[in-house]
Amino acid sequence: MLQPAQNTASSQKFPANPTPYSPPKTLTTPMEQATIGRSLVIKGEVTGAEPLYIDGRIEGSITLADNRVTIGRNGSVTANISAREVVIMGNVKGNIQCSDRLDIRSEGSLTGDVVTQRISVEDGAMIKGSVEVRQNAQKNEKAQSKDSSKPASSEQPKAAAAAAGAGSSVAIVPGSQVMYKESN
Asked: What residues in the chain have per-residue pLDDT under 70?
């Protein structure tokens, strides 16, 4: 008597109790960012320890020492800003102090004084005020210890100014001044 052949291959492919899918765990935590929406108006002091995106209005001061502040296209800020990095796509009136970089996009405008290590100004952006580009403290210390016997060259400020404005154009508005100053 012939017995039907059993299909053992298909029974081994699919177990009777499938295990549920578990996605792979990420090793880094996702970047959290606080957002101030279009309809929000804040008057006073804003401080924190996370990146901030502003699409509303702030009047007062913003202090996020180790983080990024982004002013969105709809954002309007009348405040002094102190942060590691500032990106401007909207309108800012106030002084800015960055420990790393200031980036003014083509639709952004800034009225105020700037102190930063690096600056980027896209075509079409508006800036009115003074700009001071400082050298990184670590680079400055290395340069001083390496070249302590050499006198300071007048080419360094010119190179810093060229590097700060490389690839960008700025429209100078009457009554504004642009300064490139090397600090020790």
From this structure: 1-31, 137-184
